[in-house]
Amino acid sequence: MLRFYLGLDVGATKTHALIADEAGRAVGFGEAGPGNPENVGYSGLTAVVTAALDRALQSASTTRGHIAGAGFGIAGYDWPSQRSMTLSALEPLGLTAPVEIVNDTLLGLLAGTSEGWGVAVVAGTGCNCRGWDRNRREGRVTGLGSRFGEAAGAAELVAAALRGVAYEWSRRGPATRLSSAFMELDGARDLDDLVEGLSTGRYHIDAEAAPTVFRLAAEGDGVALDTLRWAGRELGAMAVGVIRQLDFESLDFDVVLVGGLFDGGSLLTDPLRETVRAVAPRARFVRLDVPPVVGGVLLGMEQAGATPSETVREALRQSVLSLVSP
What we know:
The chain is 44% helix and 18% strand. By secondary structure, the protein is of the alpha/beta class. It starts with a strand and ends in a 6-residue tail after the last helix. The mean pLDDT is 96.
């Protein structure tokens, strides 16, 4: 009988399901909406993963009975106390294969390093950082953002840029081209109107404004530059915490950079690297160039007792790009 492996990457903005065969050839893909149970509830998680799985099965022209192992990375699965509730939400999928669930950050780690251990730093709309040592001992932050002093995804980056605008308005800081750029984005008449509108809810500047910060930093705006450097150091500090938890300071290991914010380049990543290498000078930095759901398939293979070879991993990395972009 044909044996297939399933990976699911359940995020706060979208959900990906990927099916691959034993040779690592990606044969089916499905996409659905956000599935983080913190936002959609556990019934919402069930509905979203069911939709993504059904589309992937249809794409692969196969059935649930041919799935030999499944790996799920789930945003919002943050604590061991949530395991039973999360697994219960997956039972309606009707999978008979062994299933493992992890926080979605760890899928990026599995997809980005051939050795299956190291540290993953995620910077998209939000941010997170987790790691595994060789024995799958886990190091982590909370993944709950600025409330716990963890930054900076796009949301925190833009919030920091807005503080720079407020500093200009109140004369606590220097002038910045971020002010005029944000005025243009919201249609504000002037800086007074922008600050008043933001404070009263008439205007909104959110994570989608992050490219503006990167653009102005690249053009030399001092406040935008300082904001990116701050964000890089913050992301690096998250990684340092995980490195210390796992006793990686003297080791050679991979730090996998996951998420669209890293597309902004060296203005963000250079301070991250400097922060990490001050503690772990032998760290290697890897930019994830495949969808994290690849890590879910690899986790699914492990659940079926398979050990993915480098040939299988490379076949999966190459073939997935014909079905889904990174």
